[in-house]
Amino acid sequence: xxxxxxxxxxxxxxxxxxxxxxxxxxxxxxxxxxxxxxxxxxxxxxxxxxxxxxxxxxxxxxxxxxxxxxxxxxxxxxxxxxxxxxxxxxxxxxxxxxxxxxxxxxxxxxxxxxxxxxxxxxxxxxxxxxxxxxxxxxxxxxxxxxxxxxxxxxxxxxxxxxxxxxxxxxxxxxxxxxxxxxxxxxxxxxxxxxxxxxxxxxxxxxxxxxxxxxxxxxxxxxxxxxxxxxxxxxxxx
Length: 237
Hints:
CATH class of the largest domain: Alpha Beta
Largest sheet: 7 strands, mixed
Number of helices: 10
Order of helices and strands: HEHHEHHEHHEEEEHHH
CATH topology of the largest domain: UDP-N-acetylmuramoyl-L-alanine:D-glutamate ligase
Strand content: 15-25%
């Protein structure tokens, strides 16, 4: 993937002829090499021409960006791509490092989950990027490596929607929680369930993903919906 260059993928075929409805990309892909940001931008420009929804997970990784310009380059790339995005996804660290939006009231451990401050940050982001139709943000307070508070909020059409905060969620492997939130959120919107259920699907799926090893979800739709209805965030096997 890091070797991809513009012109190597037929985006017109994917979006114009095959009719892909949703294109998802993220900051990790754009940090892989000097050429991948141009590939992402190329794909998004064609997707936008054909009315395909574009989502982007900021997913800031310092270790990837440090060899190609660091935080300054990350912000330059992400702020350019942000103008093409319909659905922006990320946590508080992502919005700060990748786009330069600070969340007020957070301590150095990012442990204060005052939703009001996150809403202010999102409002600033939407004010600067009015193309955003949806902004999804995960909320995490890592009390220990094993015990986290976990939640999410979603902005859509001028309103905020919040998933239930799961306090003291027991974590087996936290890797993949953000990706699973993104896929749950996207599922909710693609199936026409609306922003409230979409953010609940995302938060529940992310919670389940962190109770299993690895970053690939093992949860079924039925298990996600069981958690949404108040079941414990543990995959039944």
